[in-house]
Amino acid sequence: MRTVVFDLDGTLADTSGDLLAAANACFRDLGHGDMLGPDDALTAFHGGRAMLRLGFSRLGAWTEAQVDAQYPRLLEAYAADIDRHTRVYPGAVAAVEALRAAGFATAICTNKPEGLAETLTRRLGIRDLFGALIGADTLPVRKPDPAPYVAAVAGAGGAVPRSMLIGDTDTDRKTAAAAGVPVALVTFGPEGQGVARLNPEALLDHFDDLPALAHRLIPL
């Protein structure tokens, strides 16, 4: 079965507002106020530790031990208010439904912890659209290691040679390369057309274009 695997943050949904709020909760607890703003959305899509590093760097000298100490607090704050600002990107649901109607399997492979990804997708009402969900801690390794991608395809009932990845960052580009599959990077995230620098097999400007793209890039 042909399979389309999706990244979550920055690909299926704009989660940046809630991610940044969780990081800022850490800095407020430390007495510094909000250290991150809307212009840091791209950093948010690179994960909690990336946001903490950026915030601490704006305060001056910092250590990785400070990041490690605050990371559990960030996850706690995020879990407590995971979907206040998050929105599914326009056309995403219709595109996934169209793929499934055409006989494609669909799955999610994300570097968000699995429990948080399960919670978020259920609150957004999209979890049942995907046959498998693999998170950052589902396996001992995470993207760009290809193992989570392979597990997502297998969990959805597909085969890796007849699959592709939809993502938004260099991590997704590297994951697809490691798995030997094509990748389409979305251009409606914070980097916009800048993702073209990563030389993906395709750029996805709107989810309306995804069904035709999947038919073209995934072999029968």
TrEMBL record:
Top class in the EC scheme: hydrolase
Record has Hydrolase as a keyword: yes
Keyword terms: Hydrolase
GO terms for cellular component: cytosol
Catalytic activity: 2-phosphoglycolate + H2O = glycolate + phosphate
SUPFAM superfamilies assigned to the protein according to its UniProt record, in alphabetical order: HAD-like
Keyword Glycosyltransferase: no
Biological process according to GO: DNA repair
EC number in record: 3.1.3.18
Pathway as given in its UniProt record: Organic acid metabolism; glycolate biosynthesis; glycolate from 2-phosphoglycolate: step 1/1
Signal peptide as annotated in the record: none
Molecular function (Gene Ontology), one example: phosphoglycolate phosphatase activity
Record-stated family: Belongs to the HAD-like hydrolase superfamily. CbbY/CbbZ/Gph/YieH family.
PANTHER family recorded: PHOSPHOGLYCOLATE PHOSPHATASE
Name of the protein in its database record: phosphoglycolate phosphatase
Organism: Aliigemmobacter aestuarii
